[in-house]
Design a protein that fits this description.
Elements: H1 3-19, E1 25-37, E2 50-66, E3 69-84, E4 96-109, E5 117-126, E6 129-130, E7 138-139, E8 143-158, E9 161-179, E10 187-206, E11 211-225, E12 244-254, E13 259-269, E14 278-291
Antiparallel strand pairs: 1-2, 1-14, 2-3, 3-4, 4-5, 5-8, 6-7, 8-9, 9-10, 10-11, 11-12, 12-13, 13-14
């Protein structure tokens, strides 16, 4: 499946939905959380000041483009940094990234009034800043492109409460710019691809009047991997065949019109990266603005 072709198809579908008279169903949450503490230069005890902030933008956009086609976009953007002082000199160090995420998922369902709906999907996952190279930062790297097609089922569709699950064949392309060992300022693009069965379940649910839950569970079972020969004869030869899992959950509770308590969790399992599951949590109280 050609990535450029899929992008063009999605762009045409979006354009068609814009010119169509049907209104958008949309939910947009913009948030910003910051914590800060500081100490005078003569403070005794070994503490140091720090500032931590996280910004986020979450959006769900859905439109019935025609009686036979439904388009849904789920966008999740996050970025945050922690700034810390040196305990001895009290000088501020270079900020450390605390969270960084770009996840844009596009789903097109052919609504044929059948038990299940055929679908096509395109997903882009990346990060704003890769600071793994101390000599030079990389923007939007690495990038994971996922193209898939199969069958989808809407299990719940009432007001803004939705549960949509889909199962199909997925093709993934990973793009990574790797710096040359002899010159840390020059990067070379490396790619690998795999394909297999993918299951994705999206949940948007209003738990209480002021509390909303948004979740996404993605399971992927690779059937082929372009770099499989590189691992032959090694202990991790068959790790790429294990099921990958990604479970993301966001619970947001509105304390007032603009103040919201947010809890974001992510549970990842990729045997090629780690034999154990990886867990991430962001918890904060901050400013949130909703566009609906």
């Amino acid at each position: 499946m050609n990535s450029k072709f899929v992008v063009i198809v999605i762009a045409l579908l979006v354009f068609a939905s814009i010119v169509n008279a049907e209104p958008w169903k949309k939910t947009i949450d913009l948030g910003f959380t910051i914590t800060q503490n500081s100490y005078s230069d003569n403070w005794v005890g070994g503490e140091a000041g720090n500032i931590a902030w996280i910004s986020l933008a979450n959006g769900i956009f859905e439109k019935q483009v025609s009686p036979k086609f439904n388009y849904r976009n789920n966008t999740n953007l996050q970025f945050g940094q922690t700034h810390s002082q040196d305990k001895e000199t009290k000088d501020w160090k270079k900020p450390i990234k605390s969270t960084d995420k770009i996840d844009i998922d596009n789903l097109g369902r052919f609504t044929l009034n059948a038990f299940v709906d055929p679908y096509v999907a395109f997903r882009l996952q990346s990060q704003f800043l890769d600071g793994s190279n101390t000599a030079k930062d990389k923007l939007l790297d690495p990038i994971l492109l996922t193209e898939s097609a199969g069958i989808a089922k809407s299990l719940l569709n009432r007001d803004k409460n939705q549960i949509i699950t889909r199962l199909g064949f997925s093709f993934r392309e990973n793009l990574d710019r790797v710096f040359d060992e002899s010159d840390s300022t020059k990067a070379k693009l490396q790619t690998n691809t795999d394909g297999g069965l993918e299951s994705v379940t999206d949940i948007t649910y209003k738990l209480t009047k002021n509390t909303n839950y948004v979740g996404k569970l993605t399971l992927f079972k690779a059937l082929f991997f372009s770099k499989a020969d590189d691992f032959k004869g090694k202990p991790d030869e068959n790790y790429w065949k294990a099921v990958d899992a990604n479970w993301e959950s966001t619970i947001a509770t509105a304390i007032s019109k603009y103040i919201t308590l947010n809890l974001y969790t992510q549970l990842l399992y990729d045997k090629q990266v780690s034999l154990k599951g990886r867990f991430k949590e962001n918890f904060g109280l901050g400013f949130t603005y909703k566009l609906q």
